[in-house]
Amino acid sequence: MIECDDTTTRYAILSHRWGTEVNYEEMFGLMKMEEEAREEVKQRHGHQKIIKSCEQAAKDGYEWLWVDTCCIDKRSSAELSEAINSMYRWYQNAQVCHAYLNDVGESTFPTEKADEKFSKSNGWPEWFMRGWTLQELIAPQEVTFFNRDWMPIDNKRQLASTLEVITRIPSEVREVS
């Protein structure tokens, strides 16, 4: 793992809903693990998400990607506290934020409420029900949304009116960063 200065390094950042993730310790020790343990980690949806987001960042021309689940050592309360306090800045300094919508299978962003499809999340993708959504939507200049197959489905500028309906946050506030 390499630590970079977020004000001078060009990087992409991942915004996502947590599931079966790979943490810092597992990512750092992946090559030192027994083969069976390594294969178990690699089968997790969180590992596949990291791989796909790395591929997307590289495709977009970025050498670096920041992912909260594996870039913060949560065993250290000092590091966790610093990370929580720095999160907005990290999203703001990223050149692009990839928002991964794990519950959207279509090739277009849902523009109307779908209570049956998204019954657990008030009719919209689960990503919008997270506590971190506000800063991860406002802080970055560029947010590109991806469906569960990592197909780009739109960006925050093109979705301004739909995002205002979903979040009830006026577009002037979302474009503040």
Care to describe what's here?
By secondary structure, the chain is of the alpha/beta class. It has eight helices and five strands. The chain has a five-stranded mixed sheet with strand order 2-1-3-4-5, with helices on both faces. The radius of gyration is 16 Å and the shape is globular. The model has no long low-confidence stretch (mean pLDDT 86).
Defining key terms:
five-stranded mixed beta sheet; 8 helices; 177 residues
Principal-axis shape equals: globular
* Low-confidence parts: none
Q: How many beta-strand runs?
A: 5
Q: Major sheet, described briefly? A: 5 strands, mixed
Figure out the total of helices.
8
The separation of the N and C termini measures: 28 Å
Q: What portion of residues belong to β-strands?
A: 5-15%
Adjacency order of strands in the biggest sheet? 2-1-3-4-5
Topology:
Blueprint: E1 11-15, H1 24-29, H2 35-43, H3 45-59, E2 64-66, H4 68-71, H5 77-93, E3 96-100, H6 133-138, E4 143-146, E5 152-155, H7 160-167, H8 171-174
Parallel strand pairs: 1-2, 1-3, 3-4
Antiparallel strand pairs: 4-5
Summary?
This protein is of the alpha/beta class and 177 residues long. Helix content is 39%, strand content 12%.
